[in-house]
Specification:
mainly beta; four-stranded antiparallel β-sheet; about 35% strand
Length: about 425
């Protein structure tokens, strides 16, 4: 039985005094995040990352998986994607054992983000524009009750200190970030700049109403499924497959609630927006008049780095470090609060094929730190380093096991951020 008060915990990897004492949050405003606790002597981030990192599978699913959260007892929760007539919400026991269905969403559904509120209710996005609410129960799995609609593309979700739920648009490529009140009212809070704007865009001949082509911007492409023609002197695209337009994906709050971080998959970046005490946006917007007026200015980029390419979900620890899964690289990364990037783990290449699709990571999407352990969902998407997706433990249809949850072998050292934040 779930406790009345549900808190999700993220524990930190150790941070050395000499490495991180000055690297963590430095705001002087008394309402900003407090200085982080000092790490124990001899327990440095470098030493933590030097541990033998690998991942052990704790659950294999017959459907795709995305979104991960844990309860006070360390049990993991994730949702099956594309189920019919319903999408199951699974609970995976912290101590091992069979997963149990603890709730469902109505089809069509493709759960992507999960978060517990302070009352122990679980909120789940449906992969379109709806967010459902349920109280997990394995004895009588409840159907999710509609909490909010109109949050187009709702993907990653997180609660702020006031109990409002925030969501990224995830799949539309428009970069929208929503604030959803306790009574389910959806407001667009701000946007991450999309890769292309509507300057010079025109309606194509015979196109559907509202559809335009052209515009000004940039096309980010993953290979595969995109392809190129490459010689010693040329490098030209051969098709239009593999375009990556996702700029607002995983979302997480700092301990104070005054900063919200958003993963930018296409740019390999993390944005940081500053908020007032009532959740009002304090960051600069409107610098580029070809975007919507609520679009963040470029000085809100927290960090951009090649190791973050394909960044999907993110999770913050108590020291302000941001942990993320770079799914297109089959990698886990950590970014200190000063913006220093460290690759924690990446699949080794096969000695013969040079491919990185054999695991243990198979397109990791959503990280969560439960107890002293970092766990990730893996959707086994057929992109970039995970192509072909038939490699590894799980695979595409007709395989019976399509996705998995895996947890790291390395034990993390410090207490982490309580979720939802207070």
């Amino acid at each position: 039985m779930l406790p009345n008060y549900m808190r999700s915990r993220s524990l930190v990897l150790a941070a050395g005094i000499s490495i991180l004492a000055g690297a963590l949050i430095t705001c002087t405003d008394s309402s900003s995040d407090p200085p982080p606790p000092v790490a124990a002597s001899g327990s440095t981030l470098a030493e933590s990352l030097a541990q033998p990192w690998t991942f052990t599978t704790v659950f294999k699913a017959p459907l795709g998986l995305e979104g991960l959260v844990a309860d006070d007892d360390g049990n993991l929760y994730s949702g099956g994607r594309g189920g019919n007539p319903t999408c199951p919400i699974w609970r995976v026991p912290a101590g091992g054992g069979a997963a149990a269905v603890v709730g469902t969403l109505p089809a069509p559904c493709s759960p992507a983000g999960l978060a517990f509120d302070r009352n122990g209710d679980l909120f789940v996005t449906d992969g379109a524009d709806k967010i459902y609410k349920l109280r997990p129960d394995s004895a009588a799995p409840p159907a999710g009750v509609l909490f909010a609609s109109g949050a187009a593309g709702a993907n990653g979700i997180a609660f702020d200190r006031a109990g409002n739920l925030w969501a990224s648009d995830g799949v539309t490529g428009q970069g929208r970030v929503y604030r959803i009140s306790r009574d389910g009212q959806v407001t667009e809070a701000f946007r991450i700049p999309p890769l292309a704007n509507l300057v010079n865009a025109v309606a194509p001949p015979g196109g559907a109403p509202g559809v335009v082509q052209g515009g000004v911007g940039r096309d980010s492409r993953a290979l595969p499924p995109g392809t190129i023609t490459a010689t010693d002197s040329t490098r030209a695209t051969a098709d239009t497959l593999g375009s990556v337009s996702l700029v607002a994906n995983g979302i997480a709050f700092s301990a104070s609630g005054r900063s919200v971080f958003v993963a930018d998959t296409a740019r390999g970046a993390i944005w940081r927006a500053e908020l007032g005490q009532r959740g009002d946006l304090r960051s600069d917007v409107g610098c580029d008049t070809t975007f919507t007026p609520n679009t963040l200015c470029l000085d809100n980029v927290f960090v951009q780095h090649p190791a973050l390419e394909g960044l999907d979900g993110i999770a913050l620890d108590r020291l302000g470090n941001v942990w993320g899964t770079a799914n297109e690289r089959n990698a886990v990364v950590v970014v200190t609060s000063q913006g220093r990037v460290h690759e924690v783990f990446r699949n080794p290449p096969d000695p013969a094929t040079k491919l990185r699709n054999g695991g243990p990571l198979e397109f990791p999407t959503s990280p969560f730190i439960a107890g002293h352990t970092l766990c990730v969902t893996q959707s086994d998407g057929a992109r970039r380093d995970n192509v072909p997706s038939s490699g590894g433990e799980v695979g595409p249809a007709p395989a019976l096991e399509r996705a998995k949850i895996s947890c790291a072998s390395a034990r993390l050292s410090f207490g982490g951020l309580e979720l939802p934040i207070r």
